[in-house]
Amino acid sequence: MNQNYPFTLMPLPYPYNLLEPYIDTQTMHLHHDRHMKAYVEKLNELLAPYPAYHSWSLTQLVTNYNRLPAAIREDVKNNAGGVYNHEFYFSNMTLPRQQQPEGAFKEALEQKFGSIDDWKAAMKQAGMKRFGSGWAWLVKDKSKNLKIISTANQDTPLTQGLTPLMCIDVWEHAYYLKYKNRRDHYIGYWWNVANYAFAAERWAKA
Ligand code: MN3
Predict the structure, then answer these.
(1) How much distance in Å is there from the Cα of 76 to the middle of ligand 1?
(2) Residues with Cβ < 8 Å from 140, sequence gap 6 or more?
(3) If we measure between CA atoms, which residue out of 192, 97, 92 comes closest to residue 136?
């Protein structure tokens, strides 16, 4: 997540059918090859006439977008956020197994949220309460506290100075083909593909 212009589409880090049956192959193709790709292409198109910003990483673009020319500021924020959030989302899913958080990360979650089930319920609530499109996130703040937040559209926690640890995309394109309007079912089943090791590693480093 630290590349510079021109941005390239991160290949899906696993086969398109790996997350079956919880996330279906067709959704993965549509989500990665169409939706995510569109954010990458649009971001490159927006920045093409502005070489002064070609050294900026994705992270710099989403945290310092207010320093960009007014003509592209909002669009860059949205599309760079779209690329960043999707790189994160696809990386924070993995082969469905009977996994749960482990070790010190598990203990930190239990200390903050009471239990792993309570933590998952709070993440679900964040995703359900997001009106329209957006994201549910587990983050670490500057005082190293764990928090659950939701962001709208393609806003990222980085912009708020928060370190993202885990996310669930609650845009309809992430689930509509399989789960139709049941965002609650999608989030409920999403835990089967959650990459807890990815989150734990980020938590330990943050
Ligand atoms: Mn998406």
Answers:
(1) 17
(2) 146, 147, 162, 163, 165, 203, 206
(3) 92
Distance from residue 36's CA to the centre of ligand 1 (Å):
7
Angle in degrees, CA 124, 125, 131, rounded to 5: 110
Q: How far is the CA of 183 from the centre of ligand 1 (A)?
A: 13
User: What distances in angstroms separate CA 49 from CA 15, 66, 72, one per listed residue?
Assistant: 36, 18, 10
Backbone angles phi, psi at 192, to 5 degrees: -65, -25
User: Contact at 8 Å (CB) between 77 and 117?
Assistant: no
Residue that has been written with the tokens 């960009």 in this structure? 68
Distance between Cα 117 and ligand 1 center (Å): 25
3-state secondary structure of 138: strand
Mean pLDDT by 10 residues, the chain (206 residues): 84 98 98 98 98 96 97 98 98 94 98 98 98 97 97 97 98 98 98 97 95
Find residue 137's DSSP bridge partners: 149, 167
**Ligand 1 centroid from CA 145, angstroms:** 27
Tokens for 182, please give them: 């049941």
Please give the distance, rounded to the nearest whole angstrom, from the Cα atom of residue 171 to the centre of ligand 1.
6
- pTM of structure: 0.96
